[in-house]
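Q: Could you fold this chain for me?
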Amino acid sequence: MQEKAQPTASPRQQPAIFVNYRRDDCGAAAQHLAEDLQRKFGTDQVFFDRRSIEPGATWPEEIRAALAAACVVVVCIGPRWHLQQNTRTGQNRLDEPGDWVREELRAAAPPPSPVPPTQPPAPGRVLPVLLDDCSHLPDEAITLREDIRYLNQCQAIPLRSGNERDGGLSVLVAAIKQRGVPELAAALQRPMPAADLLARYRQAMVAAHGKLIPFHPDLQERLLAEVCVEVELCWDHGEHESASGRSRAADGGRGQRAGGRTGQGTLREALLEPDPEDADAAAGKPIRLLVLGEPGAGKSTLARNLVRTLAAEPEPVWLPVFVPLGQLRERELDPFAFAAHAALPHDAPAAADLARLLRERAGQGEVVFLFDGLDEADPKLVDGWLASIGALAASLPCPIALLARPIATEGRRLGTEFVVGRVQPLSATERERLIRCLLSPGGANELLDEVARSASLAGLCCNPLLLTLAAIVAEEAMVERRPIPTRRRELYEQAIRLLLRRGYGLASVSVLDPTVAMRWLQRLSLQLHEGGGELWTREQVDAAIWKVRRGSEDLDFQLKSTWATNDAFLQDVGTNAGVLGPHDGLDAWRYLHRSLREWLVAACLADGGAAEWQVRIEAWKQEVAKQRDKEGARERWGEVFAMLCGMVRAPLEVLAAVRAASPELARRALLSVEPLPVGVGLGFALEDPHVDGDLLLRLVRNWGLAATDVETVLLAKVAPDTAVERLGAILYVLDAIGKKPQRPAFFAKAGRPVERAPRVAMVEVPAGSFWMGSPPDEAERNDSEGPQRRVRVPAFSLGATAVTVPDYRCFDPQGTRRGSQGDPVVMVSWWEAYVYCWWLGEAVRLPTEAEWEYACRAGTTTPFSFGLNITPELVNYDGNYPYADGKKGEDRNRSVTVGTLPSNAWGLHEMHGNVLEWCEDWFGDYEKAPTDAAAQQTDHGSGRRVLRGGSWQSTAGRCRSAYRGGRPPGDRRASVGFRPASSSP
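A: Sure. Below is the predicted structure, expressed as structure tokens.
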């Protein structure tokens, strides 16, 4: 699979095309132009100082040598080209003999002719390019400068960064071919060798994905590799999931384990470094990964960084194909054609050859596909594209990753099953590293101190986008001695205002009127958002502006009095602010980040008052009600309404309207609102039966509520008719904030006196230590079972069997629980098991994961407490799927009465199979787990509580002592029960 051939050396020692520019005038635009020319002619044929001079080289010598060898000098002239002054002397730079831009122009000038030419002169090697608003070369710039006056006699090429860029670039390319670069022109006429095409492709991928989104001026020249932090994925261990998020075998059910690694790891590990012991990997099956992450979680950055890394490897093995779905408008999804055109946008024949070559390599399994931004795609096209991606996965032996926000996959399925990976919050280490990359040492220390003091700011800074915004806003706030914002909506607002005042990228230029520009961007964003899509032509943006102008005399007057024309407004905002503009050299306009648009839309609705947002929510509700939500209303409006709740004075009115359309979205929006009065906020949350203890605790902490107030509100909700799961949520929050109630009083208030609690048979488990997890050579091992570590376990007691149906009915007689008298109770959530255990006794609880495995092993080190293998006579599992080389056996297809199968050496029954059992821990890596048998109390982003032991539905391998599973704590399944534990005095 390794590409053996290397790109051929250029016949020219120095580049044929030299790009001259003034950094303070048009640095970013000149860089984009140089990259366009490099994609057209090859990186080695274009000299651009910031990219072409190696570190440590003597740059004056490099520039002189490049100028002497260049066949063409492209002179980039922007609106301020002739106005730049030396900050030390105050003199115009063009008047200074030592100014390098002037020196380069003098060196490029044609020699003066002593006699009139007898033949038409050959075209000179200087090509002036007028960028954006610079419609001509000002006379005052050259009147007194004889040595560069010739520029006024050169026909300049206008080149805009908007929808006219392609036309202007084509004229420039044709002029370059005409001006003494015959070998380049000839090379473009003949087919390029496959090795050269692939080399050009990789160069283009590195150039396209090596830069940052320029939120921060100081980072424009930094490469993505310099500031890219490692954001890990957590994917379901051995579990296939569809795009709708439903698992085929998530509860230890039938079927083989999915390919790939398990637990947590990087995107590269997930896609390209599968577990060698995995059955699918051994069979050569490639990975299909659905990567889900909230806004700003770093999905696109992960994908772009992987593309850049693979393309830049000195001995490349993989060809990355990156497809940003939000930039596509075609109904037919052809990733090969898209990738080839992106790499060679102005060379259609070579792009067609490259597309064929990529398709051939994909057939050989040498391509890795990354489809980014499913949530940004045109909703009308998404289902067709998902079918195409599914067909691609079924027909090609290539790894595939599809990246999206979670809401984009609701109700949708892929054509084949994908493993679901969820982007994890930034770790404290990576968060600090990114802050130190973004800020000076002093500024970084100050922001880190603020993060340590503010729980809400620390939560925001676990998101890479929000952390970046916090850094750029904090930088100015520190200078002005203002507080650093600690809420998401404040960060977005201040970041946008900062971009309007200071600009982005290399520029530091304010728009003409930031206040008016903000108003206009809000209304324009609403107009564009309603129409859908992520990319718009300049004509579409102009049409949206006219629609806003016709609908508001006030905004129409403000635009005319400030900018005069639509074009002037777009040029000012697109060039100087960058919030909305023609980024990345595209011929269409987009927002610097989708989240900025969503904030602007929410702010527009908030400014319009209840009449404005009520109409929008009702319209959205009607869209959601349509079959399969064909217009993509959830993806388009979900985050907008979540932000809106934090912007209005009566957020409960918005939340109630949103809840009527989508209870799930209302729960998510609660986390974004400003702190509410304790009774009002928690009261609203508790009206939703699906608000669990974890969400309640996050609300309490996000809102900074006093523990005493929370105690009063939550205990008032305890009554005999309170659902068991709600009792568990209330107890969980009270315990977490240090207000755990008196056990008899709590359960008496709940109508479940402790005197009714049954006596459950418990087994004394002796203290000791053991190697937790599985060794690397254990068959059917998951990576989440390692690395093995020594764990010390204090003495404790554990239920001899799982809790039975009759014992549980003593606590919850109204609950519908399957099974007869001796069957283990199932269909219980983690919250119900959690509160039931405390009802049994003051010290009774769910076992920790370490306690469970220690008790299950009962002193053994083999895969099972019964030895190297099991049979259905020892364990209740699906006998059709034996372990290792074992024989098939009976499949009972149901649970058995507890205590009927043999116990382990310590007298514990059905620790293997029968039903999976809840543990106290959140599911997480062993590297983060304690070694004293305590529970992992921090959810590292998995959103799952640990399940152990396998079940009657499981394969034999999933009944091993070390096997780990996990499900969301609110799940109820026919294969999941629990057994109680208690600490010894």
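A (continued): Residues 1-12, 117-121, 219-224, 237-262 have pLDDT under 50 and may be disordered.
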